Amino acid sequence: MTKSALQIARAAYQPKLPKALVAGDVKVVEGAATQSVADQKAIQALFPNTYGMPIITFESGEAVTLPAINVGVILSGGQAPGGHNVISGLFDGIKKLNADSKLYGFILGPGGLVDHNYMELTADIINEYRNTGGFDIIGSGRTKLEEESQFEKGREIIQQLGIKALVIIGGDDSNTNACVLAEYYASKKYGIQVIGCPKTIDGDLKNEMIETSFGFDTACKTYSEVIGNIQRDCNSARKYWHFIKLMGRSASHIALECALQVQPNICIVSEEVEAKDMSLDDVVTYIAQIVADRAARGHNFGTVLIPEGLVEFIPAMKRLIAELNDFLAANAEEFSHIKRSHQRDYIVSKLSPENSAIYASLPESVARQLTLDRDPHGNVQVSLIDTEKLLSEMVATKLAIWKKEGKFVGKFAAQHHFFGYEGRCAAPSNFDADYCYSLGYTASMLIANGKTGYMSSVRNTTAPAAEWIAGGVPITMMMNMERRHGELKPVIQKALVKLEGAPFKALVAQRDRWAIETDYVYPGPIQYFGPTEVCDQPTKTLQLEQAK
């Protein structure tokens, strides 16, 4: 593998670990029994063997040598910076316990387990990928582990390779699959452990025990660098409004964090739009008014941050999409035979009156995008909806009306951007390099202590890494029942932006001033070498949530 100078320098970086993990062996401290965040009876009935387990914290213990163990690892779902360091930490952890332990990587996600597609990850391979971005060491995939036949195919190769435990690195849906798999293997008494690791740059897999999902720090810093560059260009040319859509289908954590880092003129937060029961026109009017107010001061430029999933959070649109999801799930075969030119009329004729009227009022392009193929979870692929263009076009239309009425005296020209893939495989920040390595190492300790159905947890993450608290949290503790493909299923509850939380309150306290003033911040690129206050800082979100 050809490496850049930065990769060569980063290969030598030794990620920092919580003090309790440095000795190599740990003492397990168990907390009280747990329960799911909602739907307790339903979740307990579905997971009788893995429900109610205690939260685990690791403390320093005496180093011991354990029998060699073989472990399997899967990268599941979309890429996030730091995945290679989770694998590196897992590898180093099991090797520290016994040098003869082996790590097997299943190729291209959960499908590799089902199809028996794997490779042994040796020290030579691991060392090529330390502190690098991407998931290319073994690739990732979105195969869902749901069927008993899949579980049994997985068991065949697991037992053939003598694997004791399987580590699934993924987001909320991937870890839901890990929980289902752990329960199945436990119910069959196969002796196969399953451990999850919390990954998603969207930041929507978090709770009291999972303070942040890995990759969020790096992705937000990557996006903030580019937004900062755009803002500097914006403030130089002074003739464009930049509408910037940011990754985050189910939550606005990325948009909020980037806003706190760069101080744009406008940041839409989907959760607030929903809470205030705002219509699409309400959102457009809010943006247009700020454009008009800045124009009155002679500033015909600015920046607007838009969460990728905004359309789904507008209550009227959300109701429409929910009915569309259920209808298309039940009538996919019939819909597939409708000519494209007739599909719009077909949908209008099949929906409830309220949703039919909303659907009929949408621009053709947006209506079309709402009926395209669903994602693997049965949801609208909102990343395909050009929300940034939709909003800017509607703002332009409203401003044209205001201009005729004498309410708008400036000029309006828009540029559009969508930042998604640009951040998914960035070289991890020092925070993510340390955090991911610690998550992987913690997973090895959960395996060594015979645990299954747990997610690797590292807390106290605004403190120096030595003071981080490593342990495990039962995955069932995070679960609730949600409607997927028209039926209720157990899934990990998504963490949305809390409107009463400190990060959102920090935005609210400043946004009126940011709207009118041009008080941009230009964060610059991620720094890997230098003083800790430059290189090792966690996100603004974490600092505000933990009041540090």
TrEMBL record:
Keywords: Cytoplasm, Glycolysis, Kinase, Magnesium, Metal-binding, Transferase. This is Pyrophosphate--fructose 6-phosphate 1-phosphotransferase. Catalyzes the phosphorylation of D-fructose 6-phosphate, the first committing step of glycolysis. Uses inorganic phosphate (PPi) as phosphoryl donor instead of ATP like common ATP-dependent phosphofructokinases (ATP-PFKs), which renders the reaction reversible, and can thus function both in glycolysis and gluconeogenesis. Consistently, PPi-PFK can replace the enzymes of both the forward (ATP-PFK) and reverse (fructose-bisphosphatase (FBPase)) reactions. Mg(2+) binds at residue 172. The keyword Cytoplasm applies. InterPro entries: ATP_PFK, PfpB_PPi_PFK, Phosphofructokinase_dom, PKF_sf. Residues 70-341 form the Phosphofructokinase domain. The keyword Magnesium applies. One of its GO terms (biological process) is response to glucose. Its cofactor is Mg(2+). GO terms for cellular component: cytosol. GO terms for molecular function: 6-phosphofructokinase activity; ATP binding; diphosphate-fructose-6-phosphate 1-phosphotransferase activity; metal ion binding. Belongs to the phosphofructokinase type A (PFKA) family. PPi-dependent PFK group II subfamily. Clade 'Long' sub-subfamily. Pathway: Carbohydrate degradation; glycolysis; D-glyceraldehyde 3-phosphate and glycerone phosphate from D-glucose: step 3/4. The record marks 199 as: Important for catalytic activity. It holds the Pfam family PFK. It comes from Bacteroides reticulotermitis. Its EC number is 2.7.1.90.
